[in-house]
Amino acid sequence: MINVGIIGFGIVGSGTAKVLLEHKDILRERLGFEINLKRIADLDIKRDRGINVPEGVLTTDVNMIFNDPDIQIVVELIGGIRPAKDFILKAIQNGKHVVTANKALLATEGTDIFDAAYKAGVEVGFEASVAGAIPIIKVMKEGLVANRIKAVYGIINGTSNYILTKMTEEGVEFYDALKEAQKLGYAEADPTLDIEGIDTAHKLTILATLSYGIPLSYNSIHIEGISKISSQDIGFASELGYKVKLLAIAKESEGEIELRVHPTMLPKEYLISKVDGPFNAIYVEGDATGSTLYYGRGAGSVPTGSAVVSDIVDIARNIQKNAIGRVPTIPKIFGDIRIKKIDDVISKYYFRFSALDRPGVLSKISGILGNYNISIASVIQKGRKIGEAVPLVVLTHEAKEKDVRQAVNEIDQLSVVMDKTIFIRVEGKEGS
Predict the structure, then answer these.
(1) Is position 179 annotated as part of the catalytic site?
(2) Which residue among the candidates 18, 38, 103, 203 is catalytic per the annotation?
(3) CATH superfamily of domain region 136-297
(4) What's the Cα-to-Cα distance from 36 to each of 2, 5, 205, 221, 249, rounded to whole Å?
(5) What's the CATH number for 342-426?
(6) pLDDT per residue as tens digits for the range 393-427
């Protein structure tokens, strides 16, 4: 028997407990031994979670988990940085293996945790930290271990994906879609972490380390959210054959790694573009496998609880077979791989200029773009209003980010441009 203690009885904690208790017999049959949920610690043990928890399992004293020599695996599901980090380190110091869904903690403080676990000879499972029910951590650590990863593209925040889907399908503006997401429980009362790309960046940090053997690099990620995306831009993107998604991007080129999170236009025909609503998807391109796509629920009590239990099972098997460390928690850090600065990134771009409808305006704008080596692929101009501001949409061929920013800054100074230029990066094959 392997005994488990859970810290945190909220959404994910209750989902994990539900899976462990209701699937106890199935797990025993599949494993050949029992996984026993011995203790759940939470500040609130009175509220009904709709789960029939055996008597004596619930406690408000977290030390009953740390100090119990029979508990071999501690599951941290309270979220946040403190006291979560302290709890995990204390569990490790007490010789216990750890499972967590805490992507923010791992992305920003993970080095301390992984180092402590390595020195203590215990394992850290974190499958539920990225993309909920999708087993992407196991895919990266085991399924694709024979590959050199060329690129990872992820829709890994269900809140933002729901909002963008709502805007795309119904033509509503961002804040109306956000209110609907909050009403349905997809968005928090304070949605900043989701809509500003921070949650996505936490997850990308973990994926990038697994993909490229680089140190956890949250502070090196370029992060933009979706709050400035308008239904007008989504409409123009559709007319050009694209959909707008909040994308996590990690890709290798010439010994450098790009790490960025931002709204991205993707060709409509791409499979990942068809992932809508609160669902997640991760596209991984390996040199041996080629393109692979992983799709499923990125959040939710029981789906995420399922991912937590998968880590518990892996660690339990390793305990039973005396094979701790069989699969390294994170890969060995490779050589000195540089993370590319956003200024050096090469991409295609979508521009929306708010320009006066006058002769020669397009030539002025295109002239400045040309001066910065930015070549125009297509142009859309609608709703002619002589002497008034109208949207002028330009799609470019590949250009350098630094050149784009300088060009936009110069264009915005023109007397015929009435508002700040909107630009969105475009991914996809040239000419798609």
Answers:
(1) no
(2) 203
(3) Dihydrodipicolinate Reductase; domain 2 (3.30.360.10)
(4) 6, 9, 33, 40, 39
(5) 3.30.70.260
(6) 999 999 999 999 999 999 999 998 989 999 999 99
